[in-house]
Specification:
With 171 residues, this protein is mainly β. It has 1 helix and 9 strands, in the order αβββββββββ.
Length: 171
């Protein structure tokens, strides 16, 4: 009788181990799922920065910061984005209402006079109000990258026209 009980318990143990499959000894990866995207994410206080990338134009002299911001705070904030490039810091700010705001096409945060290379990364520091900021290694892409053709920086040029005075004398 005891051998039958031991055999039944052993059979139950083998069946449990067999039905557990590889997950019995292999760690699960579902708790560490990563976001699949081109850009980087961070959170500053009640503001989430999602899929941040820098899109450069020809020559890499200007960059458009493309991302989605999710403001979960109780009111609008002024978001500051600081690009750290070649030892210099360039800061741009943008109003951020409550809710979701996409930056890239209409709403733009642009940096000019920078030296950025396609395929590299750049440090961008996000911050607002008195919240502790966050530095993110943001990928640098160009407008040839699939899906970013319309997101390049818009560089305004100034045309200087000099007036000339022509004096006509009669003779």
């Amino acid at each position: 009788m005891k051998s039958r009980l031991v055999a039944s318990l052993a059979l139950i143990g083998v069946a449990a181990l067999g039905t557990a499959g590889c997950t019995f000894v292999t760690p699960q990866v579902t708790p560490s799922i990563q976001t699949v995207s081109d850009g980087m994410n961070t959170t500053v206080g009640q503001v989430g920065i999602r899929n941040a990338v820098l899109i450069i134009g020809d020559g890499g002299q200007a960059a458009n910061l493309v991302f989605t911001a999710v403001n979960n705070s109780s009111g609008p904030v002024t978001l500051s984005a600081q690009l750290l490039s070649d030892g210099s810091r360039m800061t741009e700010t943008a109003p951020l209402p409550v809710g979701v705001t996409s930056f890239g096409k209409e709403d733009r945060i642009q940096f000019t006079g920078v030296e950025l290379a396609d395929g590299g990364v750049a440090q961008v520091f996000f911050q607002y109000g008195q919240e502790t900021g966050s530095t993110v290694q943001v990928p640098v892409l160009n407008t040839d990258t699939n899906g970013f053709a319309d997101y390049g920086p818009v560089v305004e040029t100034t045309v200087v026209v000099e007036e000339s005075t022509t004096v006509v004398t009669g003779g």
